[in-house]
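[SOLVED] Predicted holo structure with NAP

Edit: marking solved, answer below. Original request kept for reference. I posted the sequence and ligand SMILES and asked for the 3D complex as structure tokens.
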Amino acid sequence: MKSIKLSNGSEMPLVGLGTWRAQPKEIENAVQIALENGYRHIETQINRNSENVVGMMKISIFTKYKIIFVCLFFQLPNFGNRPNDVEKFIKLSLSKLNLSYLDLYLIHMPFSFHCDKSVYAPLTNEDGTFSLDVDNDIIKTWKEMEKQVKSGLTKAIGLSNFNAEQVQRIYDSAEIKPAVLQIELHAYLQQKEMRETCKKLNIAVTAYSPLGSPGANTHFSNKYNYSLNDFPDILGHPTVKRLAEKYNKSPGQILLKHLVQQNIIVIPKSGNPERIKANIDLFTFDLSQEDLETLNSLDKNEEGRIFDFLFFKGVEKHPEYPFKRSKA
Ligand SMILES: NC(=O)c1ccc[n+]([C@@H]2O[C@H](COP(=O)([O-])OP(=O)(O)OC[C@H]3O[C@@H](n4cnc5c(N)ncnc54)[C@H](OP(=O)(O)O)[C@@H]3O)[C@@H](O)[C@H]2O)c1
């Protein structure tokens, strides 16, 4: 498995298994199949829906398969994105995983909500809007993240869903620089400027929703009563399908290879055994320069963004809301 050397010296595998929206049993099976097929980077999240799942990923599995990298989201955005919550949440994550340290810990989002302590979830107002915590200071939160590296609870720290100005702000104030930025990145949202910023700052980029997150619209609708107009079908784009035929690969493999060939880490989610195997089977072929450029030309910039987080009603009013230029 090819990997990227992070600024802290760790090697981060270029392909990881995403687990978002999967049910507990599905995740357990998916992790097992993934490990048997060469995955060494499992990306997990702790929230009230997946706590049990994370608990299933026992130390015995990691030991058996000599796992070298566990990327775990830092669940601050919804209800705990405050400096004095950092240590509490990383320790909670470690206890769920039965691990003594993580390889990478991310601040999930730059904005935050008040916590509804009765259900450990974001507090919502009577009109359905989310209760914004506008007092969080991302620089102070970062300082607490640095302390977790110093105390050995995580080897590297990073960011997710921060925009270029926010990344630069953290970087400029940081004693320990962000090692990774995890952002939405796929053929329709190629994030070229952000990638340039990260390259300059020696921050590795992880692409989330690298296949365009098929099925996310149903989730938005069921969970938040929110839906995106014209939800994209990137896997079904004629160019992607044509290249799949040309290389005798699946459309998913073409989309993932487009990113991996540019040294972008990908974390496709799948619970399907055949797709789990296919999504890591990316290193026996290369796309030609011409075909890379053809895929580059599918970029829709901000128009291609799926995760603008407007399903958190009212979030765009948070001072750290990162996507000012989005379709909002
Ligand atoms: N930082 C953030 O805010 C954030 C936001 C969103 C997502 N993420 C992370 O990124 C990971 C991946 O993103 P995502 O789940 O949104 O989208 P994705 O990986 O682009 O797409 C996952 C969907 O594609 C299907 N699929 C997987 N491999 C396929 C293939 N080769 N061909 C066709 N369909 C395929 C999966 O269904 P099957 O399971 O049936 O295969 C699933 O429905 C998530 O697990 C999550 O952890 C992070």
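OP edit: The two ends are 39 Å apart (CA to CA). Thanks to everyone who chimed in.
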